[in-house]
């Protein structure tokens, strides 16, 4: 595995970027089919608009969220926030999925307001595409050598090259492939949502099911993740996941989203 796919003159193309591009294309295709199946008043150009609004905001949110845990570092090397300068090393060049979801949510709210489409109905169409895109993104983490786990003696542990974040942090050590664990869980969640999507549930049920299932899965994987973000003695991923599951469970029950639509 290697972070860099190829170079074209002075342009370096990384596998991580390729994984993002593939995730976007695959997710957009699935979203388009779901929008058509659900009869939402949106065409493919509208969905391109959604990507153009939400994806950049998701990246910005992911970066800001990550940077909040390293404020002292970024104060001393502000250009590193943009991946520039000598201070943009392995460990402080990351993105955080929960920040990405927050940024993407802002874009989603803007989009449904502009297009006058039902929020919960669109989220139900989006959820399977989103989790599959996340799974593909984790393949990019594997090739990039980030989102890695703690050292392990298990036979499926991976020794990452020294030019990756994992290899720099744990040189010549076998690590839990935490990104593969999450990719597998994301694919299982996708299969679960894909089966649920044809059920006659109230709008919002698929979206809430995504939030609950992904939060539980991410919490499990976080036990194996090195380089986790912490809030005091608690992993940020665990705290955020608990809050998401609690709110989603309440919303699910309060709105009776599990009942047939129209009931």
Structural features, described:
This protein has 263 residues and is mainly alpha-helical. The chain has one domain. Helix content is 61%, strand content 6%. It has helices at residues 15-38, 44-68, 71-76, 97-115, 119-144, 165-169, 178-196, 205-222, 236-254; strands spanning 4-8, 11-14, 158-159, 174-175, 230-231, 234-235. The strands form three sheets. The protein has a two-stranded antiparallel ribbon. A two-stranded antiparallel ribbon has the order 3-4. Strand 5 and strand 6 form a beta hairpin. Helix 2 (44-68) runs antiparallel to helix 4 (97-115) and helix 5 packs parallel to helix 8 (205-222). The chain is globular. It starts with a strand and ends in a 9-residue tail after the last helix.
Short key terms for the protein model shown above:
mainly alpha, two-stranded antiparallel ribbon, 61% helix, 6 strands, 263 residues
State the helix count: 9
> How many domains in all?
1
Number of strands: 6
What percentage of the residues does DSSP assign to strands (E)?
5-15%
Major sheet, described briefly? 2 strands, antiparallel
Which structural class should the secondary elements be placed in? mainly alpha
Global geometry: globular
Q: What's the helix-strand series?
A: EEHHHHHEHEHHEEH
Rg of Cα set: 19 Å
Mean pLDDT: 91
Helix content: 55-70%
What is the strand arrangement across the widest sheet? 1-2
């Amino acid at each position: 595995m290697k972070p860099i796919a190829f170079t074209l003159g002075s342009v370096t193309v990384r596998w991580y970027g390729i994984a993002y591009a593939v995730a976007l294309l695959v997710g957009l295709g699935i979203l388009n089919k779901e929008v058509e199946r659900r009869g939402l008043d949106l065409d493919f150009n509208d969905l391109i608009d959604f990507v153009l609004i939400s994806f950049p905001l998701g990246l910005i949110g992911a970066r800001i969220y990550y940077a909040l845990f390293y404020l002292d570092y970024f104060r001393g090397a502000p250009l590193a926030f943009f991946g520039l300068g000598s201070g943009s090393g392995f460990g402080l060049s990351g993105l955080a999925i929960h920040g990405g979801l927050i940024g993407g949510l802002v874009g989603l709210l803007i989009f449904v307001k502009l297009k006058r489409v039902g929020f919960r109905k669109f989220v139900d169409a989006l959820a399977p595409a989103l989790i599959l895109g996340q799974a593909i993104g984790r393949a990019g983490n594997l090739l990039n050598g980030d989102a890695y786990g703690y050292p392990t003696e298990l036979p499926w542990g991976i020794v990452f090259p020294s030019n990756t974040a994992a290899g720099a942090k744990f040189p010549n050590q076998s690590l839990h492939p935490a990104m593969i664990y999450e990719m597998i869980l994301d694919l299982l969640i996708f299969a679960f949502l894909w089966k649920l999507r044809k059920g006659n549930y109230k709008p919002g049920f698929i979206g809430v099911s995504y939030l609950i299932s992904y939060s539980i899965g991410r919490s499990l994987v976080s036990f194996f993740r090195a380089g986790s973000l912490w809030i005091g003695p608690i992993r940020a991923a665990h705290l955020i996941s608990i809050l998401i599951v609690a709110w989603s469970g309440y919303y699910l029950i309060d709105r009776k989203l599990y009942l047939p639509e129209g009931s």
